[in-house]
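Record now logged for everyone:
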Amino acid sequence: MLRRKTNGTNKKVALVTGALMPRGNGRAIALALAEQGIDVAVTGFTRLEGAQATADEIAKLGRKSIAVRMDGRDYQSVKEAVVWIPLSSKIKAVIWPKRHR
């Protein structure tokens, strides 16, 4: 997915969790996807402002992005979050980076 740039006619959207930490894998993945021309929805649960900061960085790269509150451990929360993503019908990838402990 990271090797191919979009041509504008086949836009891609990814949902990335864990994109709120300054050094987190999710943030790095979200930014890498945006650099490849993919619109990115990022999620946060306890610190939505961190996810919003990542979404703002993505927007500066010229891609569409949205930050959504979501608890990835709760199916209902995931379901509700996807409904709030305006481009949800186009989501091609959902990424849950492994948490460092």
